[in-house]
Write a structure and sequence with these properties.
- By secondary structure, the protein is an alpha/beta fold.
- The protein folds into 2 domains: 127 residues, 3-Layer(aba) Sandwich (Rossmann fold), CATH 3.40.50.10860; 124 residues, NAD(P)-binding Rossmann-like Domain (Rossmann fold, 3-Layer(aba) Sandwich), CATH 3.40.50.
- The chain is built from 9 helices and 12 strands.
- Strands 2-1-3-5-6-4 form a 6-stranded mixed beta sheet. Strands 9-8-7-10-11-12 form a 6-stranded parallel beta sheet, sandwiched between helices.
- Helix 1 packs across helix 9, helix 4 packs across helix 5 and helix 4 packs across helix 8.
- The protein is globular.
- It starts with a strand and ends with a helix.
- The model has no long low-confidence stretch (mean pLDDT 95).
Length: 259
Amino acid sequence: MTHIYGIVAHPVSHSLSPIMHNAAFKSLGIDAEYRAFDVKPEDLGAFMKILYKENIYGLNISMPHKEAVMDYVETDDIAKDIGAVNTIFRENDKFVGTNTDWIGIIEPLLKRTELKDKKVMIVGAGGAAKAACYGLKKQGADVVVVNRTYDHAESLATKFGLKASKDPIEAEIIINCTCVGLENPEKSPVKEEVFLYAQIAFDVIYGGSETKFIRDAKRAGALTISGEEMLLHQGYACFEGWTGKKAPKEVMQESITEA
């Protein structure tokens, strides 16, 4: 029987996860199908209830459900520490939530620089920002959280023993962990001048158009990392967790590049 996997998000039409994972399943001859599930926030509870009636063996969870979904599954220590779930796997008759987003953020950065003592500004305070804080804290980075609502930034920073700021700071690395730019790539969560001191700018958003965040960073001379790299690295970890097989990284990367 074909095992079903998928992504739960709203909106979900932009997601490249189905292309990436279906290419991986096909390349290894695994009888599985990866689908996209567009689930509105008010419908999440109803959707999660049907999981046990369907042949679903794993899910990715994306915006805006990464925190809310924790009410419907058991969570491992990583998900508990981060406070958000981006991956669900089936364990016998129960579903367990974990988080591979932090891997998707840290691995692309480590390809370019060491992170210990690096000054990093995280923009946002949602699920992706939590994963970034978790990973960067493990690497010994000097992290400051900035968010439109300062109380949320302060709460997140306090959780991980980091700092918060009401205003953007001078940082060597800037990471956009908000959804600003997803539906309208002409919008950015920060002003262009914040990139004057940045060496690296990382936007967790990906899609058909380059975001203003990335364009502004390039103009300022910063190295840029797009959300496709985060998608791939967290995807490798998801795939291996679900299947117990080594992810066919080249196949997955080629599928994203072609898409």
